[in-house]
Amino acid sequence: MAAEIQPQPLTRKPILLQRVEGSQEVVNMAVIVPKEEGVISVSEDRTVRVWLKRDSGQYWPSIYHAMPSPCSCMSFNPETRRLSIGLDNGTISEFILSEDYNKMTPVKNYQAHQSRVTMVLFVLELEWVLSTGQDKQFAWHCSESGQRLGGYRTSAVASGLHGGVTALCWDPVQRVLFSGSSDHSVIMWDIGGRKGTAIELQGHNDKVQSLSYAQHTRQLISCGGDGGIVVWNMDVERQETPEWLDSDSCQKCDQPFFWNFKQMWDSKKIGLRQHHCRKCGKAVCGKCSSKRSSIPLMGFEFEVRVCDSCHEAITDEERAPTATFHDSKHNIVHVHFDATRGWLLTSGTDKVIKLWDMTPVVS
């Protein structure tokens, strides 16, 4: 079921340690078991599996449990070994795993939602189980009594917290929230600084599926449907992107835009299409913004449109990358980062779980 891959000499890229195979459908979520060479996974094939590394070097299921409905999400608390599993039928099922991870004992079921559970989180300090679902409900239950404590109806199907957001993670030291989105972007929200700033990070060519934060090195790991693993250096002074300015004519050459009929008539010129410089935010025509450049400190690791004057002003130092890009070779659905070992788990639409040594790039 799992083929061991021998580690290669240390390079500045993730090292693939293991492929864990055997699921019949997409693995929607999986986590690395702390202090163990093990993985817990839940799949669309209705199975919960605990994979432990054997003496042969392969990962084999020590637990194989079939659920009544496809497993959409999970939350595992290592301290209590409580495993909360969200199902496609709206139920949340809880189990306690044995110390040797060879047995799972049912605890209780919560009839939390009317349709698929999209997120579940067990909060030990409050003894709460939080969840969101495709029924547009955000709900919380008491984990001791199983009683529903409250709920809130969202305006759209909840995925993480709201419609376009596909992933969230939190930096407790800097008090910064990171959100991944279906529009391929990651946004850094300065909540703790109370400045109201939002820094946009562009490094994916498909929707961002999952985020993880390495607090000890201040690096953000984002993974997407494009198979990319992007490691962002957040220990730099980033700049907020400017607001796009409105204008009826190019703010560089004063040529009218195509909706400015009066100026077109007065100047006897055909109107031009409007663009915006990503560096200064000015409204410009294509002729005055013929160059492209990366602006990593603004989050643009890929080249974007800039006006000609800004292009000349950007230095080579300002173009220095603040992120590294790596190909996982599968469409990533979910990631989990074990900071103590520097291991990253990725699960993909190819039904495969991959374990990576990230120490070459997260250090």
From TrEMBL:
<feature type="repeat" description="WD">
    <location>
        <begin position="325"/>
        <end position="358"/>
    </location>
</feature>
<keyword id="KW-0853">WD repeat</keyword>
<dbReference type="InterPro" id="IPR000306">
    <property type="entry name" value="Znf_FYVE"/>
</dbReference>
<protein>
    <submittedName>
        <fullName>WD repeat and FYVE domain-containing protein 2</fullName>
    </submittedName>
</protein>
<feature type="domain" description="FYVE-type">
    <location>
        <begin position="244"/>
        <end position="315"/>
    </location>
</feature>
<keyword id="KW-0862">Zinc</keyword>
<feature type="repeat" description="WD">
    <location>
        <begin position="20"/>
        <end position="51"/>
    </location>
</feature>
<dbReference type="InterPro" id="IPR036322">
    <property type="entry name" value="WD40_repeat_dom_sf"/>
</dbReference>
<keyword id="KW-0863">Zinc-finger</keyword>
<keyword id="KW-0677">Repeat</keyword>
<feature type="repeat" description="WD">
    <location>
        <begin position="201"/>
        <end position="242"/>
    </location>
</feature>
<dbReference type="InterPro" id="IPR013083">
    <property type="entry name" value="Znf_RING/FYVE/PHD"/>
</dbReference>
<feature type="repeat" description="WD">
    <location>
        <begin position="158"/>
        <end position="191"/>
    </location>
</feature>
<dbReference type="InterPro" id="IPR020472">
    <property type="entry name" value="WD40_PAC1"/>
</dbReference>
<dbReference type="Pfam" id="PF01363">
    <property type="entry name" value="FYVE"/>
</dbReference>
<dbReference type="InterPro" id="IPR015943">
    <property type="entry name" value="WD40/YVTN_repeat-like_dom_sf"/>
</dbReference>
<dbReference type="InterPro" id="IPR017455">
    <property type="entry name" value="Znf_FYVE-rel"/>
</dbReference>
<keyword id="KW-0479">Metal-binding</keyword>
<dbReference type="Pfam" id="PF00400">
    <property type="entry name" value="WD40"/>
</dbReference>
<dbReference type="InterPro" id="IPR019775">
    <property type="entry name" value="WD40_repeat_CS"/>
</dbReference>
<keyword id="KW-0967">Endosome</keyword>
<dbReference type="InterPro" id="IPR001680">
    <property type="entry name" value="WD40_rpt"/>
</dbReference>
<dbReference type="InterPro" id="IPR011011">
    <property type="entry name" value="Znf_FYVE_PHD"/>
</dbReference>
<dbReference type="InterPro" id="IPR042234">
    <property type="entry name" value="WDFY1/WDFY2"/>
</dbReference>
